[in-house]
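Async update (no meeting this week)

Hi team, since we skipped the sync, here's where things stand on the single-chain job. The sequence we agreed to prioritize is pasted below, unchanged from the tracker. I ran it this morning and attached the output directly underneath so nobody has to dig for it. Comments welcome in thread, and please keep replies under the output.
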Amino acid sequence: MQKRHTNFYSIFCIWSLVLFGCTTSFAQPLADKGTINLSNIDFGKQKSIALNGEWAFYWNNLVSPERIEVDSLINFVNFPHLWNEDPELSSYGYATYTVQIIKPANPPPLAITIPDLYTAYTLFINGEVISRNGRVATNRESYTPFWLPRTISIDHFSSDTLQVVLHVSNFRHIKGGIRLPIKLGMEEFLERERTTEIGYTLLLTGCLFMIGLFFMGLYLFGRHEVPMLYFAFVCFLFSYRIFGTGLYPLHYLFPDLPWILTIKAEYFSLYFTAALFCIFVHKLYPQESSKKFIYVFAGIFGTFSFVTIFFSPFYFTASLNLFFASIPVALAYITWVYIKAAFNKREGAWFALASVVIVFTVFMHNLLEYLTILEENLLLNFIGLFSFFFLQSLILSYRFTNSLSRARIKAEEAAKAKSQFLSTMSHEIRTPLNAVIGLSDLLLESKSEQEKQEFAQNIKQSGENLLEIINNILDYSKLESAGIKPDFQPVNIRKATDEILNMLLPLSYGKDLPISLEITQDTPKWVLTDKTQLKQILINLIGNAIKFTSEGKISILISPAISLDKSGSLLFSITDTGTGISDKDANRLFKSFTQVDASRTRKHGGTGLGLVISKKLVEALGGEIWFESEAGKGTTFFFTIEADETEPEEDQQVEMLSSPEHNTYADLNKLRVLVVEDNLMNQKVITSILSKKNLFPEIATNGKEAIELLGSKVFDLIFMDMEMPVMDGIDATQYIRKAFPKNNQPVIIAMTANAFFEDRERCLKAGMNDFISKPISMDMVEVTLKKWFS
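Output:
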């Protein structure tokens, strides 16, 4: 902190030197009654003189140089002179100014610098036109406005006096007359001064434009941070403000540009830059800035910009005073935002705070210069504006490098977590594989029936563990690569939940573990959600409850989420009496590649991806997921989804026609079964399982063979693989449902290695009645037979 204070003190000292180091100590002679006496001026020391003082003034009269008369009846005004600040004049009109200059003896080569006037002028010296901007006239139709400051050599005038006559007309701007002084001085000095100012202008314009291009490129091709985009546009607009004002080098390069276009661009770039900068501050520090206040300021400056585009110069030039009144308030609020950001240790906040101090200094100097209280300080303007934009760019660069650093750390942590995950998965996959392969060898060698039974049971359990691991890995990989795109359709909540419970029922075999489902009466029967994703959430959570509960019970409750301070309209809770989760392990849940117990001595295996997948799916359905747990007593997982009540579609209203209660069969041993499977080993597995139930199926190796068999025989049940040569299971099922009469329609069960829920839904949509995924087991087949032929 001490270092920061020292830095700010140094900045203050530098700015004090810049602000006050360029003041002049020479006394300036003033014109008196239309004459300015420079006979005692040494232009070798005092390089230039502002021709200020009393000039003769003729209102609404363009007096030719030949008719100028100096007498006591002439009206004199203090020059420079703005018509809108004179209560006796109006902004629109025309006038003549004149002054006589008494030159010093033997002066060096002299020149005269004429600033921009409002808004057309012709300058005569000793009757000769030496400079003009636009066309001076006595009416709006004849006059042409134009702005281009000039430095003109007058060394060819050898007389001791110079009679200066200035014609000015204005019919467009809120101001009229002249704001800045006309200067007389050494030609070499004035030319160098002009060249220096143009150099500052071009250098600053180029710097701002390049900064804008840099951050625009960074936004487009790098990190898409919105503050970068706004700052790029601020740089582009203000670079025009620099290039299109002051000495107006743009007008020098393109003298034929319409004045109305250039003045609108000049004021628009000022007003809209302020509006964009306010939004930039909010995007930069959204937590410290009030959106309401920021957009009020942006709205004010945006209104000025709108007036500039669609109204005449009189109105948007009149808005400049309101703009100057609004800017200090906006800067004060932005300063407060930066102070809060600094104390909250936001990235780059101290750079921001320093920049706003600098820009406030520049603004106050420019305001005083605009009011002709101070003379223009090119060095202050250049260093100030350059420092301001440089510090703003440092803020973004600092944020960018920090974001890269955070991304690197995050990537390293992710790589470490994935490495640990791969190590864990290697162990998890090799463990059941070792059991499958090792026990298979022992099984082949064993002669004891009891031992064979034990080996076979262990092989089966190891295979199921391996299947669970592979399923989780595949599900997570699919979510990471393809993302989540919910497909909202009417869903019967009870039916969807019952299907999941029937599917998971075999997992509870061998445990004293009743599973209860309660759906409150005020819960809608049909809701609009994604059935596939909802089922996957329930499978993960109920499956975990069964896995981590050895005895007790599992309760599932579904009700409207009425009094919860959570997003979502439907609440699900899954309560178990299992091992529970300790407080120290609670923060490990819902994180990729982590498990509550990741030690080498953990009791339960698995990938640790189930809850991560569930969280992603819940959020995709517009809800939240959380839990309550006590170690050793059990856990309750809650989740909500956004599910509005709806009505079933027409095809869903007749869906119950294919439900199990419509397919009763007195003797399961008399079922006529067809297995459609192209793989010989899979044929052997399913036929062996069915033979244990005294069912001896016929075999078809593809969908075409199955259709041919159905043309000559009647089957009650078909186990249909999805992917087969010649004709796959989807096409075969669709053909069967269309081609065969309703009284000759078999129950078709998908039996496939495609285990994703999308595959399940595709099978059901094609006309299949149910879905079992490979590898299949006797329990799975038995549950399916009882479900459809009870």
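Quick observations from my side:
Confidence is low (pLDDT under 50) at residues 1-25, 598-605, 654-662.
The first helix runs from residue 2 to 20.
Reply here if anything looks off.
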